TrEMBL record:
It comes from the Eukaryota. This is Tetratricopeptide repeat protein. It comes from Ricinus communis. InterPro entries: TPR-like_helical_dom_sf.
Length: 237
């Protein structure tokens, strides 16, 4: 992964590796396959717990003692989305645009088919903004502040669905059905592209299900005014 991120590829897309004193060369097809699998694997597994125990990944410092950093070791931790991994996944995707790799396998349908990149700074800022709403670190009565914060998060990182899904619900609560439908539709597209949840607090299919409820409510004008009616939304046909 480090060599791919560093762009250490031959003109023909192959890659030379050294392991235990032995040299081998991966073909362009093998490099492309490994890159795609690494993207999917990181998206499936990575959240704040891994981010702390593998701090500075992929240049992991192996001198940190578990007993000293016990707070970081407590599983599953706060379950916050990772603030460093998604930008690395986007860099792996861009590596697939290498002329010798591009046609080896279908490009993953993320980051505009691996043609766009997410900067580390934008990723970290977007996660912080999103999590501040999830943790209720925004005014709890008026929607304006939380909505503006989530809109900023989505502008910084439009490549994951969860912030857009939460934003869709805030739009519905504010009576902005058209905006809610657009946000929910975009969220579903992101969820479908990844096939995995970015926010690991619930499973991917649960995010999909609630987003579909939001979209249906926006299209039908059926979002309830009473809080206690939210629990019954999934019972509607």
């Amino acid at each position: 992964m480090q060599k791919i991120l560093a762009g250490d590829l031959a003109e023909d897309g192959s890659m030379a590796l050294e392991s235990a004193g032995r040299s081998q060369r991966l073909s362009a097809y093998e490099v492309a396959a490994f890159t795609i699998v690494s993207m999917a694997d990181a998206m499936e597994q990575w959240f704040s717990w891994q981010e702390d125990i593998y701090s500075q990944f992929p240049q992991v410092q192996n001198q940190r003692q578990q007993g000293v950093h016990w707070a970081a070791s407590l599983w599953p931790g706060p379950m916050r989305p990772a603030s460093r991994m998604l930008s690395q996944i986007s860099d792996l995707g861009r590596a697939l645009q290498h002329p010798a790799l591009r046609a080896q396998l279908p490009l993953p349908p993320v980051f505009d088919h691996c043609s766009r990149q997410l900067s580390p700074g934008d990723e970290a800022a977007a996660v912080s903004l999103y999590w501040s709403v999830i943790q209720l670190d925004q005014p709890l009565v008026d929607l304006d502040a939380a909505t503006a914060v989530l809109e900023s998060a989505v502008r910084l990182n439009p490549w994951v669905g969860e912030p857009q899904m939460v934003l869709a619900q805030l739009y519905l609560s504010a009576g902005r059905a058209d905006d809610a439908a657009r946000a929910a539709t975009s969220a579903l597209q992101c969820f479908s592209g990844w096939g995995n949840a970015w926010d690991k607090r619930v499973q991917w299919d649960a995010w999909i299900a609630w987003t579909r409820i939001l979209l249906q409510s926006a299209q039908q004008g059926s979002w309830p005014e009473r809080l206690d009616k939210l629990n019954n939304l999934a019972l509607k046909g």
